[in-house]
Structure formats: structure tokens, C-alpha cells
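no rush on this but wanted to send it before i forget. theres a chain ive been looking at and ive put its sequence and its fold in C-alpha cell form underneath. please have a look and point out which stretches look like helix strand or loop to you. thanks a lot i owe you, the record is right below:
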Amino acid sequence: MQLSVIILNYNVRYFLEQCVLSVQKALEDIDGEIIIIDNASSDDSCEMMKTKFPHIKLIENAANLGFPKGNNIGVAQAKGDYVCILNPDTVVAEDTFSKILNTKNWQLNIGIIGCKLIDGAGNFLPESKRGVPTPWVAFTKIFGLYKISNYFGKYYAQHLSENESGKVDILVGAFMMMKRELYLKVGGFDENCFMYSDDIDLSYLVLKTGKSNYYFHETSVIHYKGESTVRDGTYMKRFREAMQFFYKKHFNKSWFFDVMMQVGSFVFSLLKKNQQKNEVRIIEEYVIFSKGNLRINLPQKTTYLSDFNQFVNQQQKNIEIIFDTTTFSFAEIITFMQLNKSKNLSFKNYISSSNYLIGSNNSNDRGQIILL
């Protein structure tokens, strides 16, 4: 088997369904499998999987074992030569796996390959490519120096643009593809870390083997970044602990270093918490793209279009775009979002199998699900 896609789920039933639908399409011409690990969700994620995807392997953990252990459990049962660690709040394009698997970059002593991630509004997510967060690099991130000059841009690997592939140090755990043999060789995700610095640690462990990690810009994946985690007090505590875990594991130096990292990780986690919001937008018009007979009863003016080229955004009012995922490919939808990202546009996908709309307005938005 060529590829095993590992998806760890926790209480994101609707995002999980959409993710699996996109992964199934992306695996149609690949000898692959999907493995879902559920960390004791309290919603009906497992029931949904058993009903709608009974052929997909589902592992139900009796407790929330965290991101590292949950993924390690999935990889332990994987059969693919390659594994892809994928968040449940993502949407992959139909060509994502094939492009990455077929790239010649694997011949360049590459360890992990990541791709371009965008948020639910079509904006590039800079954490798609990062540098090792040494004390200095973390300092430039915490205090926003990376925005001033590329000289301070190592945190987000600003030696590469978002549309330029190349070697980077750190990739994000929302999407990571690597050989299963290498994953097992470095020990997978460190289970001493509950979550948040696990992808940094795994990327760094791969670098220490002498391999390089690689950012591949030629395919894009939506990551509804704010959905999986509520940035509350528990989040802040775990984020601080995670950053301190990574620094102590790889950069244990002096009391001054430890104090600086504790203060820095606290400030960083506080900023993260304050960023999360659910944006309230007043929609003035809906535009539905469908090549079929989709009709949705919506409260505002609704325009139906069957071709993306028919749409002209005059940026005079707030418009919500709704994509019929049964008649447009996810690759087409992702491309449209990137080309038409605008402050007055928001995007939702229509999932016919459960009759709902799903999406988010920005990377800090927890997302929105509208049951029809």
C-alpha cells in the first residue's frame, strides 16, 4: 500500500465528515487507506463514521489521549509506505496526495513534506512553513519583529514566499507527509507532550537524522484553523507547557533561558487566546455555485451561478459564496477562494450527504455550521 492518511478527531463531527469526503476523492487513484482515531468525542463523530463511512477504519479511544499518542496509535496500524498526518478540520484538493507522492523531491534526502495551507477565507497561513523556534526566533515572533523585515523572518521561513517550494525546518501538524519507516525510526510524536509543540518536535527530530523538511507550494489545503481548539484557560496552560517542553528537551541551557521562555510562552499564548473570535458578518447577498438543481432557502437575495467565470465581485456589499461540493471539485473551490479572497466575501461548502453548510470567516474563527 502506498499511503495511509491518519486523521485524529475530537468533537468536530461535521468538519470530520467534510474532511473524509475530500480525502476519499483524493485517494481515488492511489492505493491508500484512511484511519480515523477518535479521542473520546462527546458528539456523534463515531456514530457518523459508522453510518456514513462504515468501510473506513475507526479506532475509538476510551479517553482523550492527546494529539501525539492518538496519532501514534493510528500510525501503528497503518499499512502504507507513506503516512499523512491530517487534521480533521481540513479539506484536501483532489490532486494533493498524488502531487506530493509523485514529486521528485523525495529523492533529495527529504524527511517530511508539507503543503500550502489556507484558511476558510482563502488567506495563506504562514505557519505552513517555519523555522526552529530558538530563543531568538521565538523572541522575534512574540514581539512581531518578523513583520518589520525578512531579517527577523526565520519563524515563518520567510526566505521562501508562499508560492515558492523549498527546504524549511518546521512543518505544521495539520498536514505532514513522510515515510512510515522514518516516522517509526524517530519514535513518532513524543507522547510526553499532550499537544501544540508536537509538530515542532517531530520536524526537529527528523532534521537531527540528517534529512531536510520541504514546503511544497503546488497544492493547497484548507485548514479551518480555529475550529479544533477553544483558546480558553486550559489552552493557555497547555500551550505554555508545550513550548516549555520543547525548549527543555532540545535547548536546556540556563535559568535565564528558562525564565525568558516561560515569560515568552505565556505572552505568546495570551496573544493566541485574544486572537480567537467568531466574526459576525451581515450577509447582503448569497451566491450559490452549482451545476445541478441545488436550491437552498436563505434569508437574503440569492443568485445561482453554474460557472465560476460568471462571478464578478464589485466589492460593494458583503457576499457569502456557497459551493455545491457535489458538482464542483474541492480543487476548483480552493483555487476560486485563493483567487477571489476579499474582505467582503465569505465562503461555505454545501455537504449534501448531511445537508449542511460549513466554513469559517478567518483563521481565528471557530467556524460555522448551518444545518438545513
